[in-house]
Request: fold
Amino acid sequence: MKKVAIVGVEGSGKTVMLAGLGELYSHTDADGYFLAPKNYATASYVAEKIAKMRRGEWPMATPEDALQGLDWTLKRRRGERQRPEDICEVSCLDFAGEVYRLAFGIRQGAVPRDLADEVSALKEYVRNADDLIVLINLRDVIVQSADDPRVQESMWITNEILSYALDETGGRKAPRAAIVLSQADSYAETIQACRGPQGVLSHYLPHVANNYGWLDILAASAVDKTVLDDNGNLVPAPDFQSEKLRVIMGWIRVGLEGVEETSTVGSDALLHFHCPRCYETIEATADMVGAQGECPTCGNRIIVPPPASAPVSPPPPSQPQQPPPPAAPESDSKGKGAEAWGESIGGILFFIYVISKVIKGCQ
Ligand SMILES: Nc1nc2c(ncn2[C@@H]2O[C@H](COP(=O)(O)OP(=O)(O)O)[C@@H](O)[C@H]2O)c(=O)[nH]1
Ligand SMILES: [Mg+2]
Reply:
C-alpha cells in the first residue's frame, strides 16, 4: 500500500498537526474518508495530545529517548454494510530533534551508537515514502530572524531532508512531496500579503524556494482558535477545531489514483474541487461554474470548474508573479486573519460565501 510520510525538524508542528489530523479524521469526511489508528500507541497519542490542547497547553517536545511511531491507515467507507476500503498508510516518526540533527544536520557523520538505529530508521523512512510531507513552522520563518542559529540550523536540516528524499541517482524515483507551512492561523495576514504559501517561501526562505519551490507548497493550521494564558502565551482555545488540516488530506487525495471526488449535479448541487495551488477543498454551487474568484486560503485566482473536471480544476491563465509586499511580522495573535481563514464552523457555507463575495467583486 502507498506510504505517506510526515517529517519536520523539532518545533515544526508535527505533534500538533498529527494530533489534530488524527482527531479530525476519526470521523468520516463528506466523502467517507477516515484515519484508522493501526495501534493503541497512535490512538492514545491523539487522545492525550488533544486533551492537553483543550486544557490550553501545547504538547511538550519529544524527549530524546522517546520515539513516537504513529501509524494510520487511510480508509474510505463505501456503504452501510460494506467493509471500508484501505486507501494508503499515513505515518510519522516523531523523533526528537537530535535525531534529525544527526541524520540531516551539521553533525552528520558523528552518530553516537545509542542513536544509530533511530538515525537510520529516520533516513529509511524518508527514502521509502511514496508521498512526503515536510513541515516548516511559520513562526520560525517569519518571526525568528535569519540570524537565529536555531532557525538557521532548522532550515538547513529541512533543505537536507528534501535533498535526500528527492535524490534520484541510481534510477531511484523521488516521492511526490509537499512543503507544509504550519501555524498558518497566526500568520494568515502575512500569507495573504505574500500571495499565498509559495510567496512566503520565496520571500523568507529564498534558498529553499529556489531549490524546492517547484514542489507543492501548502499552509495549514491545526487549531483555528487561540487564547492568551495567564503568562501571556497564546495557547489553543478549549473549543478549537482542526478543520484547516483538510488541506493536507486534499493533497494526499490528489495523489491517489482513481479517487473520485463527489460532485452531485443538480441545480442546488455542491461541487467539490481543489485550489490548484494550495489544494484547499473549495465548494461551490453548480450555478457558479465558470465564475472567477480567489481561493479563500491562498488568494490564487480560480475558476469554478464544471462537474466533470471538478477533481482537478484547470489553473487560470497565469498571472505574472508580483514580488510580495514586505510583510510586517505579525504578533502571535489570532484573529487578524479571521476574514481570510474564516470560521471553521459551517465551513462549507463559508467557502460558498467567500466565493460568491469575490465573484461579485470581479464582475
Ligand atoms: N497557533 C498555532 N501554533 C502551532 C500550531 N502547530 C504548532 N504550533 C506551535 O508550534 C509549537 C511546536 O509544535 P509541535 O507540534 O510540538 O512541533 P514538533 O516538535 O514538530 O512536534 C507548538 O508548541 C505551538 O506553539 C498551529 O496549528 N497553530
Ligand atoms: Mg513533537
